[in-house]
Every structure is written in structure tokens, then in C-alpha cells.
Amino acid sequence: MPANKKLQKASFGMGCFWQPEYDFSKLPGVVSTRVGYAGGHTDNPNYKDLADHTETVEVTYDPNKVSYKELLKNFWQHHNPTENQSSQYRSLIFVHDDEQRQAAMETMSQKQKELGRLTTEVLPAGDFHQAEDYHQKYVAKQKGEA
What secondary structure does DSSP assign to 99-144, as a single string? Predict the structure, then answer.
């Protein structure tokens, strides 16, 4: 029997980060989620000054319980990857390694055949700047679950 894989991270831009964070947090095998800003070049972005960053959900998951491809399936199902959006709300898959890049490109190719032109980008995961506390678990708080 192969050794258990360690916890891994996945990061996605899907428009406003509130609902995607909630959706990912409900998946079995997801250990934690947090929202923040990624993909830009400005130091210390915040909600009032994102500059070129994108609202991003960072997912920590147990690959022994949920696969990266299952996370990608959730990504594609829970936002519109065909809309042109500002940099704040772009459709992005931030990949943390070559295995994630390959899976992201495969699923993007499949989705492109289904939907035609996509605006989704696949970029290397870089710095993640955690969003302000009031953004964390926002939907769960509104539902009285947090």
C-alpha cells in the first residue's frame, strides 16, 4: 500500500471569493479554506486596493480523500469561465506544481471543447495575501454556520 500523501494546496480565482470558499469548504477531504489576493505584482494588497491581484480561494486538502481533479471539477461547475472580468474577478487556476498544471490544462481543454472560448488562465501559484478577517468564511457566517 502506498504511503499517504501529505496535505496539499490548490488555489482558484472564480469571481467574488465568498461563495467559492464556501463551496470548497463543504467538499469531503478539504481540510481548510481561506480567501485572499493573488496573481498580482503590488505589495500588500487589500480589498480597497487590489491593484492587479485577483480574489482567490486557497484550499488545503487531503489528496488521500479528494483528488485535485475533483477540486477542478468544482472549479469548473461553480463559475462562468467564459466571461471577461476585471483582474479582481478573473477566472484563474493557480498551480502549485507540474502535476497540477497538467491536470488544469487537461480539464481546461475539455471545457473549451464544451463551451468554446474560455477566459480562464493557468498561472504558477505565487504569493498569496490573506484577505481581511471579515471576508473569511463570509457565507458560512451569513448562514450562521461559523
Answer: HHHHHHHHHHHHHHHHHSS---EEEE---EEEPPGGGTTHHHHHTT
Per residue in 45-66, pLDDT tens?
999 999 999 999 999 999 999 9
Q: Give the residue extent of every domain in the chain.
A: 8-142
**Catalytic-labelled residue, pool 9, 16, 27, 112:** 16
Is there a catalytic annotation at residue 16? yes
Q: Which of 97, 133, 137, 144 has its CA nearest to residue 17?
A: 137
Please report, in angstroms and rounded to a whole number, the separation of the first and last CA atoms in the chain.
37
Q: Which amino acid is at 54?
A: T
Number of other CB atoms surrounding residue 118 within 10 Å: 17
Fold classification of 8-142 is Peptide Methionine Sulfoxide Reductase; Chain A (3.30.1060)
CA 104, CA 91: separation in Å to the nearest integer? 12
Provide the 8-state DSSP code for 96: S
Q: What's the pLDDT tens digit per position in 63-95?
A: 999 999 999 999 999 999 999 889 999 999 999
CB burial of residue 141 (10 Å; 0-12, 13-18, 19+):
middle
